[in-house]
Amino acid sequence: MPFLDWVNKAQAQRAAAGVPYHLLQFESAHGDADAENLLVQGDNLLALKALLPFYRGRVKCVFIDPPYNTQSAFEHYDDKLEHSQWLSMMWPRLVLLRDLLAEDGSIWVAIDDNEAHYLKVLMDEVFGRGNFVANVVWQKRVSPANDATHFSSDHDNIIVFAKQKGNWSLNRLDRTELQNSYYKNPDNDPRGDWNSVTYTGNKTRTERPNLYYGIRNPNTGELVFPPETLTWRYGEETHLKNEKENLLYWGKSGDSKAPRMKMFLDGATAVVPRSVWSAADAGSTQLSMTEQKALFSNAFGTPKPELLLQRILHIATRPGDLVLDSFLGSGTTAAVAHKMGRRYIGIEMGDHARSHCLPRLKKVMAGEQGGISGAVGWQGGGGFRFLTLGEPVFDAGGGIHSAVRFAPLAAYLWHFETGQPAPPTPQAGEGRKEATPLLGVHRGTAYYLLYNGILGDCRPQGGNVLTSQVLAYLATRFPHDGPRVIYGETTRLGEARLREAGVVFKQIPYDIEAR
């Protein structure tokens, strides 16, 4: 497979692994206290790394609308990166987004033609060429830009990849009134309205000789055959059944040279998504600006319409699935996910995290009726938490930052040791009536953390130091017949005693990789 190369590519490829792990700082809660939705303000590369221990492999759909690199200056973000800088900016973010995606998840990236073709090759490398799903062309303009120097740029691309294409399946789209309007009943068939489809298949006479035979037109008596390069879609036995059930249509005058097959509206199914989306299907930039002006006095400069995100989330997710947008902009993805009953994480670095995203989600909770609200019957409710990017876990000297508490360090260590996200209902953590040092068991090994007074206080007998008493307590309270890894401030047990107990002791912070 060919690869894309640019200045500093090797550095960009190392960037994701080298991103330091930061804490996420709680700022405020809004609405339902049990809601799992997050709005995060901070650099999205740092925020994605901070989310990794908790959400690796759990995101069903990523939608991002990164800077298009058009060399334009916008009020709310800078879109003037040199081409190789843009590629270096995208690579580590795509790598972290890939790691956050579920095995049956998908990523959708909106981009225009300025970087679309480079982005496709970049994503081939990160996600694997075989996981490419589609390049959706979205008609973003209703009317042409007559002031354009050459062509009116009327479309954007939405590049779609699956994490593992073999595991991914999409939801078909509901039928529209226009699609249903093609169904008529010219012959007063008691089964109701119908439309007709071709009776020929795509095989040749050589490939499928059993599908090449004559059919008698009941109106003219003529024996008709498919073209030499085609066959009928059905074998003779099935054809006779179709004939008996009055499923063949010979045209308005009845003298067609080939029949068509009746398909009834009553049995019509949802439709497969097509790769070209009109403004009528998915909204337009004009519609999105109208939505913005209804929400804000200072409208965001380049928003996406809610209708576009509704279509994407309908195809890629189901209610309760987790959606992530790390270039949240004005908050459209989060707002639409909220209205559609999806869980979501939105990340935005700029001030508009507070000026646009935060108030927009509050309005959604209050039941605002713009965008898709009427179509999905939205009446308000739900909730979300607002977080900011906090301190790094490790200080400049490599030690654990004083602000770090048990829960985030436990999640970090579990992810560091196992590559897995923290359990959905973690055994370890603050705020529980009985905090527990057992992080979990992975592939036969149990992991424990003695930190931050988890067993009461910081004295040796309190639990942060591994002593004989603490080891006995762990064996009694959290028995495990297998190897154990215990993190702690220090240990009073010798190597022989640890080997006898099947324990590998790792000292904080020296045995924790600072990254």
- Mean pLDDT across the residues is 89
The whole-angstrom Rg is: 30 Å
Distance between the termini: 31 Å
| Count of the domains | 3
Compact summary:
The chain has 515 residues and is α/β, with parallel strands linked by helices. Helix content is 29%, strand content 23%.
What tags apply to this protein structure?
23% strand; elongated; 25 strands; 15 helices; Rossmann fold; alpha/beta; 515 residues; four-stranded mixed sheet; ten-stranded mixed sheet; 3 domains
Please tell me about this protein's structure:
The chain is α/β, with parallel strands linked by helices. It has three domains: 280 residues, Vaccinia Virus protein VP39 (Rossmann fold), CATH 3.40.50.150; 91 residues, no CATH class; 111 residues, no CATH class. It contains 15 helices and 25 strands. Strand 17, helix 10 and strand 18 form a beta-alpha-beta unit. The longest helix is centred in the N-terminal third of the chain and has 18 residues.
